[in-house]
Design a protein that fits this description.
This protein is mainly β and 115 residues long. The chain has one helix at 3-10, and strands spanning 25-34, 37-51, 58-65, 68-75, 81-88. The radius of gyration is 16 Å and the shape is globular.
Length: 115
């Protein structure tokens, strides 16, 4: 038996996050410690990619802060993630939408998936 599989089973964390993929707009509620205080900060943006598997999985979220694009990488198994809200489902054809970084204005919109 592979030693990595044994360690993964032992440290597995079960989280009930919604099913999201690249192009979706999500809000990540993230715990931040400042000294002895702890608060929850929200990071709302578009998912650019999801990579990895199981507890090593990470996802990249990009938001615009003024005219500057801010990207943040979150590990899916992080104990600092309080919850993830799915705001909009996006209609994209790729699993990694790095072309989205160069887009500005109306070109930077992602069509919403209708149900």
């Amino acid at each position: 038996m592979n030693l990595m599989n044994v360690v993964e089973k032992e440290y597995a964390v079960s989280n009930n996050y919604p099913d999201f993929k690249a192009g979706d707009t999500i809000t990540v509620h993230y715990k931040i410690k400042e000294g002895n205080k702890e608060r929850i900060q929200q990071f709302r943006g578009t998912v650019l990619q999801i990579r990895g598997s199981k507890h090593t999985q990470t996802f990249t979220v990009r938001k615009m802060s003024g005219n500057i694009g801010v990207e943040r990488i979150f590990p899916i198994g992080s104990p600092f993630i309080e919850k993830i809200d799915l705001n909009k489902r996006g209609k994209v054809r790729r699993a990694r939408i790095f072309y989205f970084r160069e887009r500005t204005g109306k070109k930077a919109k992602i069509r919403e998936k209708k149900y």
